[in-house]
């Protein structure tokens, strides 16, 4: 078990490439910040799965239904892994985290407070949102100082890479498809572009503890800028219009219009367009299935009692 | 591989009924994604849904070259799904109980195909039987724990059984032309014999869990699988919602 005399000692350990493990006597400030970040990531994976689930029954083909099921299963699998990593930090257990989520006491990514209105929104999520999430996760993975999180991110980043390629393939079908398909995607792009660039969050504050402790390695605005450089030309190349009247190119760099962060703040307080329905669906289901968890727990107790007798 | 124009009407009907059952049960299971009673179960049940949809695809391939259009764009009367597979079962007690009843039957149906004279079918059966072994184990283990876990769970499973068993028994109503499928060598066991094996196995498990129940008559009205449940139109409308947006589109 590693110990540090004070925060400065801990910081120099971090600055020289140190890796923190659950058994270490990490400073409470680090434990709480890292826990909050992983819990947010876990919640977002789970609520992302719930955002995608709406259109799975309507998939226009059996293989497509299998593929989207597998993708959503991956997202829920990521949530499962992340909740275990977070629970090991000793701040909250998994049930407490889920119940905080369902009671609206904890947060998840802005993009999953919106509704997928058409099948093309499903593709926009797979193409735009997954790519933004992947860029963000890769940057965390690069130098992450919390060992269990970094190890889980290795798998998550690999799987999200598959999702992104799948999203590209699905987008191509719409981009090279009929007028109706292209129109559907343009309308989905109009809905999902701004949430996607907002996914990176407002510009990072000076002295962001997550940057200082090398959980994040890049500032939010830098990640957003790189994303815009990559996706503006791609989408325009497919013949789609970026829904930003102030989008411009300066010295070869794409610059987007100023973002009004107020709607995002409301969204993050669970006041987004689909926040209530999404959380209620999950919360009601959690309550409806409580008897299953209680029965299984009782069965385990009974088995243990019988073994002890 | 057998192709649709080589299949007799009876063999085609048998495969179609099985394929439609797998399609509908896979679609109904899929609706649980994200809403399982706990995360591990969410992952497991979603894998089962994917397997069942995979079986549906492979079975449809013996009947048609255009699986998606065939699977999604028929008139209700052209489907041959058993009523058990069409029901929503949107509470976990029913979803779990149906999963168990259906997969016990599914195993026997693959077994009936396993000595088929068709090489392509034999390869499919071998793969499906490997997957189904896990499905049955999952359902049995889950139900056995609920059965050992106290009165509320037991009462819920009893109630689900009471509702679902008449539908489940009706899965064995023979398709029109079953005797032809038997004489073709597509299947080697008829539905009467499979139904008896299934009933014995279901009763043995229920007895072991102290959940024995009076054995019901099959639900009436399935009409050799030509009739659909009242819930089917909404299910079909949802399956067709995207693919019918644009008939020229490739999704």
How would you portray this structure in words?
The complex is a heterodimer of chains A (309) and B (251). Chain A is mostly helical and 309 residues long. Chain A has 12 helices and 2 strands, in the order αααααααααββααα. Chain A has helices at residues 7-15, 28-53, 62-87, 94-102, 119-143, 147-175, 179-198, 209-212, 220-237, 262-271, 275-288, 290-308, and strands at residues 248-250, 253-255. Chain A has a two-stranded antiparallel ribbon. Chain A is globular, with a radius of gyration of 21 Å. In chain A, 39% of the residues are buried. Chain B is built from 10 helices and no strands. Chain B has a single domain (4-240), classed as Ferritin, core subunit, four-helix bundle (Ferritin), CATH 1.20.1260. Chain B is mainly α. At the A-B interface, α2, α3, α7, α11 and α12 of A face α1, α2, α3 and α7 of B.
- Low-confidence segments of chain B, ≥5 residues, pLDDT <50? none
Shape of chain B: globular
Q: Label the overall shape of chain A.
A: globular
Structural class of chain B: mainly alpha
Structural class of chain A: mainly alpha
- The CATH topology of chain A is given as Ferritin
Find the CATH topology of chain B: Ferritin
User: What is the CA-atom radius of gyration of chain B, in angstroms?
Assistant: 18 Å
What percent strand of chain B? under 5%
Oligomer: heterodimer
Q: What letter string, H or E per element, gives the SSE order of chain B?
A: HHHHHHHHHH
């Amino acid at each position: 078990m590693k110990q540090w005399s004070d925060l400065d000692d801990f910081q120099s350990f971090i600055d020289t490439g140190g890796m923190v493990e659950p058994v270490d006597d990490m400073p409470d400030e680090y434990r709480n910040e890292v826990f909050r970040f992983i819990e947010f990531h876990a919640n977002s994976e789970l609520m992302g799965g719930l955002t995608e689930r709406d259109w799975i029954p309507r998939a226009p083909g059996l293989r497509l239904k299998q593929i989207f099921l597998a993708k959503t299963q991956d997202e829920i699998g990521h949530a499962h892994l992340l909740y275990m990593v977070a629970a090991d930090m000793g701040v909250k257990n998994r049930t407490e985290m889920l119940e905080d989520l369902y009671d609206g006491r904890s947060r998840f990514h802005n993009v999953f407070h919106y509704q997928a209105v058409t099948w093309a929104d499903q593709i926009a999520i797979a193409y735009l949102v997954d790519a933004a999430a992947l860029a963000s996760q890769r940057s965390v993975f690069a130098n992450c100082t919390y060992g269990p999180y970094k190890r889980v991110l290795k798998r998550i980043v690999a799987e999200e890479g598959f999702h992104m390629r799948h999203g590209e393939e699905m987008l191509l079908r719409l981009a090279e498809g009929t007028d109706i398909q292209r129109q559907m995607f343009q309308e989905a792009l109009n809905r999902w572009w701004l949430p996607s660039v907002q996914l990176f969050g407002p510009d990072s504050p000076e002295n962001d503890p997550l940057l200082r402790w090398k959980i994040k390695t890049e500032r939010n605005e830098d990640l957003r800028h790189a994303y815009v450089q990559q996706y503006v030309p791609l989408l325009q190349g497919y013949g789609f219009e970026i829904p930003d009247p102030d989008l411009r190119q300066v010295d070869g760099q794409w610059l987007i219009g100023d973002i009004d962060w107020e709607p995002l703040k409301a969204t993050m307080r669970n006041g987004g367009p689909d926040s209530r329905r999404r959380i209620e669906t999950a919360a009601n289901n959690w309550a409806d299935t409580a008897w299953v968890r209680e029965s299984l727990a009782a069965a385990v107790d009974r088995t243990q009692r019988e073994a002890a007798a | 591989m057998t192709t649709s124009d080589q299949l007799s009407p009876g063999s085609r009907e048998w495969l179609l009924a099985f394929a439609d059952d797998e399609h509908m049960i896979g679609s109904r299971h899929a609706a649980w994604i994200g809403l399982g009673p706990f995360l591990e179960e969410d992952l497991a049940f979603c894998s089962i849904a994917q397997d069942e949809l995979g079986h549906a695809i492979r079975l449809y391939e013996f009947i048609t070259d255009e699986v998606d259009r065939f699977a999604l764009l028929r008139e209700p009367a052209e489907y041959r799904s058993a009523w058990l597979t069409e029901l929503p079962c949107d509470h976990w007690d029913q979803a779990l109980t149906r999963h168990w009843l259906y997969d016990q039957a599914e195993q026997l149906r693959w077994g009936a195909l396993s000595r088929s004279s068709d090489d392509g079918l034999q390869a499919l059966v071998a793969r499906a039987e490997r997957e189904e072994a896990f499905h049955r184990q999952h359902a049995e283990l889950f139900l056995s724990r609920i059965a050992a876990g106290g009165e509320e769970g037991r009462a819920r499973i009893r109630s689900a059984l009471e509702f679902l068993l008449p539908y489940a028994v009706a899965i064995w109503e023979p398709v029109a032309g079953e005797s032809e499928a038997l004489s073709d060598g597509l299947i080697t066991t008829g539905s009467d014999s499979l139904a008896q094996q299934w009933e014995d196995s279901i009763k043995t498990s229920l007895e072991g869990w102290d959940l024995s129940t009076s054995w019901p008559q099959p639900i009436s009205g399935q009409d050799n699988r030509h009739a659909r449940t009242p819930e089917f139109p909404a299910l079909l409308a949802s399956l067709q919602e995207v693919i019918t947006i644009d008939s020229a589109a490739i999704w």
